[in-house]
Every structure is written in C-alpha cells, then in structure tokens.
Amino acid sequence: MHKCKRFVYLFSALFLLGFSDSAYASTQNTAAQHVCDSAAVQASRISNVPLSVLKAIARTESGITVNDAFTPWPWTVNSEGRGVRFSSAEEAIEYVGLNRQRGVSNIDIGCFQINYKWHGANFSSVQEMFNPYQNALYAANFLASLHDEFEDWTKAAGAYHSRTTAHSDLYLAKYIPILEQLDQAPGLGAMQKKRTTKTNSFPLLIGQSGGSTRGSLFPLGASSRGNLLISIGGTN
C-alpha cells in the first residue's frame, strides 16, 4: 500500500515536472513568435518602409505556424539550402558556428534571413546578425535602397531575394498573398504605401564586393533556397 502511494506521488511529481517544462517551452515560443514583428515595427518607423511590407518579407523568409498563427521566427538558419528553426538564439548561433567551422559561409540568418556570406561583414558578429532589431533594421534599409531604385515595393521585394527574374518571380508568388492578407488586417490596410525619399542612411549597403549584386541579398544567378524545415529545439 505504501509502495503504491509512493509510486502515485512519484508519478504525479514527474507529470507536473513535465507539464512545467512544456508550459515553459510554450511560453518561450509565444514570446519568440512576436519578436520579429516587434523589431519590424521599430525598423519601419526609422526607415519609412511600410510595416506590412516588412512583415510580409519576414514571413516569406522565416515564417512558421506557432500557436495557430503564421509568424516569422527569429532563430531561423538556412545553410546550403537546408533550413532549421531553433528554440533559442544560443542554439542557432552554435549551429552557425559549426557550419562556419566546416567552411560554409552561404548561411541565411534570423527574421529576415540576412546572408552571412554577402552581408556578414556589415555586422560586428553573428550574434548581432541574430539580434532581431539589427536584423530587421538592416533588411529595412536594404529594402528602402531597393525602393529608391525600382520605385515600387513589389519589385523591391523581389530584388530583396534575387535580381534574377526567375528566382524573384517564385519569391513574389509566396510574398504577395502574404502581403495581401496582412493588408486586410486591422491597422495595416490603411498604411501609406509611399515612402518619402531620403538620403541613404545605411552606407554599409553601398559598394558591396565579393561577387554579390548591389541590390540583392543573394549573388546574381544564385539558385533559390530550399524550403525551410521545421525544427524547434534542434536540427533535422
């Protein structure tokens, strides 16, 4: 009888411990799912890039369904066409480090999937590239420079991915439906889609070298990236 009670108590304790871990993980996921959008709000205010455009780009780049909502994920990494999402920045940073040790530099990082090979030199560290605000601000200023060139947000979004028409068209096929859905959301539909022309406040985007194009996050002619794999808490 006593052994039975002890077993019940032990089972209950283990169950509660497991529930606590699950609840903690759920809380982490809930917090992380809003990080990219919060960063996009700040970046939009500074760069004058429409918020709906930034949110649509982020979802096209790193979108995942969390708690029944399709949202960008801050700890997303795409290396050599294989995408992985982690539950923490530390895990994502470690994964990038392991890939760099193998000599891999074509790595996309964070909410807006900034490419390490072509843009990493414009950040102080991989950690900074994963910083949602820095990631979003870099993407926003890059989009702003593309809008100055193309004078159209859709064309700018396509060039954000690639200047190669075949690749940008595939990208826009995903981006446009997401943007349209966001534009129908309360508070975003009425947003002004025109941006006041201003001096480039992001000089690091000028004069990119190393084979990348001046107006794309990827080199001219690069193939489009593979679909991101869903992997929260580890790699697949």
From TrEMBL:
**Annotated signal peptide:** 1-25
Could you tell me which residue ranges the Transglycosylase SLT domain spans? Answer: 42-162
Q: Which InterPro entries match?
A: Lysozyme-like_dom_sf (IPR023346), Transglycosylase_SLT_dom_1 (IPR008258)
Q: Which Gene3D superfamilies match?
A: 1.10.530.10
Q: Which UniProt keywords apply?
A: Signal
Q: What's the family? A: Belongs to the virb1 family.
The protein's name in its UniProt record = Transglycosylase-like protein
Organism (species) = Roseobacter litoralis (strain ATCC 49566 / DSM 6996 / JCM 21268 / NBRC 15278 / OCh 149)
Upper taxonomic lineage: Bacteria, Pseudomonadati, Pseudomonadota, Alphaproteobacteria, Rhodobacterales
